[in-house]
């Protein structure tokens, strides 16, 4: 497994560069790949994951290696980026793959806690603002990881990703709803939905995310069948 994981991690670095995707955080586990990323183009994240799927299928000499389409959610900068990053990087803890997220080498956790740097990693501004020096940021983030996410935050991230709606404050959701959104900005209300006309809806939020990071990076998950 280790050799295959090393190979997939190398593909991730390569394809992120090729598809213009800034990776802020990532974790690879036996059953899924989690990313916190900001794509430069509307198809960047999908292209990256499709390319990794093709490489993995060719390497394993098998058919499709992922289960359907990937799931993603937009997260609000200043409020949800660090919780989302921590949620991504603590996946090995939730799956009991290790008792120390920093020791799981197929993730960005160690790089954010003072371990070896990952040249392909693009730290988000919220992480940079976490401390005045690299040592301060790493030490503070390590304490954050060790303290663990609240169950409320972890559940909110999981639900948003499962439902593929944006995660943030009312003003953030209103901003996304005011522009063309590629996904629901929040959970739908019960009852028959109203009919709406929204041309180019899919490209809207993705393009907004390219031009203004305030629209937020995406958390994405891909799973094998």
From TrEMBL:
* Chain intervals for the UniProt region annotation (Disordered): 182-225
Q: Where is the composition biased (Basic residues)?
A: 186-195
GO terms (molecular function) for this protein are: DNA binding; transposase activity
For this protein, the record's InterPro entries field holds: Transposase_17_sf (IPR036515)
Q: Name one GO biological process term.
A: DNA transposition
User: Coiled-coil region(s) at which residues?
Assistant: none
**The organism's place on the tree of life at top rank:** Bacteria
Q: Residue span of the signal peptide, if any?
A: none
Query: What name is this protein filed under?
Result: Putative transposase
